[in-house]
Design a protein that fits this description.
The structure is a single chain. The chain has 354 residues and is an alpha/beta fold. It contains 14 helices and twelve strands. The chain has helices spanning 14-25, 49-62, 83-90, 103-110, 119-134, 143-153, 196-205, 220-224, 241-247, 259-263, 267-275, 305-316, 319-336, 339-353; strands at residues 2-7, 29-34, 72-75, 95-97, 137-140, 160-162, 183-187, 210-214, 230-233, 250-252, 279-282, 298-300. The chain has a six-stranded parallel beta sheet with strand order 2-1-3-4-5-6, with helices on both faces. The protein has a six-stranded parallel beta sheet with strand order 9-8-7-10-11-12, with helices on both faces. Strand 8 (210-214), helix 8 (220-224) and strand 9 (230-233) form a beta-alpha-beta unit. Helix 4 (103-110) runs antiparallel to helix 5. It is globular and about 60 Å long. It starts with a strand and ends with a helix.
Length: 354
């Protein structure tokens, strides 16, 4: 089988890199037709007129039809504006859209970039609907997220499928060996989805614990107002993330209270599980598709800083529990989200649509 990974997708974003890697591992020949727009942007939530002009120029370049033929074409994340060019490039072959998110959900409901009901919010919702409907199949990251996207675009269930995000096995491998003292690690963009306010409040409630915050973004101001037991590092190279995870006492997932936070499992959760690092994350419908409370992760109510602080104290004081979660989390990853498992999953999806 031969597929074309297509569009303005962010090439170094884990969802794209991991899908391409696991497909190749499953024996699928993957070519890329990529025009850079979002690559290297750590503050894409601020994207404005400059990015819009760059995107328009990229879409014109994408209109050039590839010379080779393919069994299917995959539009990567973020590719909501790429579907018209993808339809031309596909020449009647099926198009699979790997959107990861709804634009309206992300920039209106989650990040508050635009006011609900405003003209930009309505425009983003229209882009979502048109993009999802233009694809022959949309692949979401959890079942509950798939249901949301299907409802948003009015898609029948046979036009949407599910594959977990996973992690790149070449980068994230077992090796958890925590430093002393116990350190709580957060890695990710500082955006509302992750519940940074809840994490920082938990740190204030547990001043005896050490927190290491890695990332930057929309909520940098909250990080600047952190308590003394929180170390903030705005950026770490992607290849160094396994070292951060291997030496942490535990890793944090997401604790936001938005509807989107209920539906998704972030990259960093899979990366933590792959490394065998004990994971603490919000108790959501999305998380429970992968995780079992007390066996593969500690699950706490989203937005509840005191519950998070208590869970972290418990974990810091119980090495045996931490060890069980390390083993159980890695087992859940191997069974449901490794590259081998997801490679077979993606290949099955592509064979069905092709």
């Amino acid at each position: 089988m031969r597929v074309l990974y297509f569009g303005t997708y962010q090439r170094d974003y884990p969802r794209n890199a991991q899908v391409i890697s696991c497909l190749r591992g499953a024996g699928v020949e993957v070519d890329e037709h990529h025009v850079a727009v979002w690559d290297g942007r750590r503050d894409s939530w601020r994207a404005g007129l400059g990015a819009a002009a760059q995107l328009a120029a990229a879409e014109l370049r994408l209109l050039r039809r590839p010379s080779s033929t393919y069994d299917a074409l995959i539009v990567g994340y973020p590719g909501h504006f790429d579907l018209p060019a993808a339809r031309r490039a596909a020449r009647g072959r099926p198009i699979v859209f790997n959107p990861l998110v709804s634009l309206a959900d992300t920039f209106v409901a989650d990040r508050g970039r635009f006011r609900p009901g405003s003209a930009p919010a309505r425009a983003l919702a229209a882009v979502d609907r048109q993009a999802f409907r233009a694809a022959d199949l949309v692949v979401a990251d959890t079942r509950v997220h798939a249901d949301h996207l299907a409802k948003l675009a009015g898609l029948p269930h046979d036009r949407i499928d599910v594959a977990f995000v996973g992690a790149e096995d070449r980068v994230f491998a077992p090796g958890w060996s925590p430093d002393d003292p116990f350190t709580v690690l957060f890695v990710g963009k500082l955006i509302p989805l992750h519940g940074l306010e809840t994490i920082l409040a938990a740190a204030r409630s547990a001043p005896e614990l050490r927190f290491r915050l890695v990332g930057s973004g929309q909520l940098d101001a909250l990080a600047r107002a952190r308590s003394a037991n929180v170390e903030w590092i705005p950026w770490v190279d992607y290849e160094r993330l396994p070292l951060e995870l291997h030496r942490a006492g535990c890793a944090l997932g997401i604790f936001g209270t938005s509807a989107k936070a209920q539906r998704v499992i972030p990259n960093k959760a899979f990366q933590s599980l792959a490394c065998g690092t004990p994971l603490v994350t919000g108790d959501t419908a999305g998380a429970r598709e992968l995780l079992v409370a007390g066996k593969s992760a500690l699950l706490v109510p989203p937005g509840d800083a005191e519950a998070l602080a208590q869970a972290l104290r418990r974990l810091a004081g119980d090495p045996e529990l931490a060890s069980r979660l390390s083993t159980g989390g890695r087992a859940a990853y191997e069974a449901q989200a490794s590259e081998d498992v997801l490679g077979r999953r993606w290949r099955t999806i592509l064979e069905r649509v092709a």
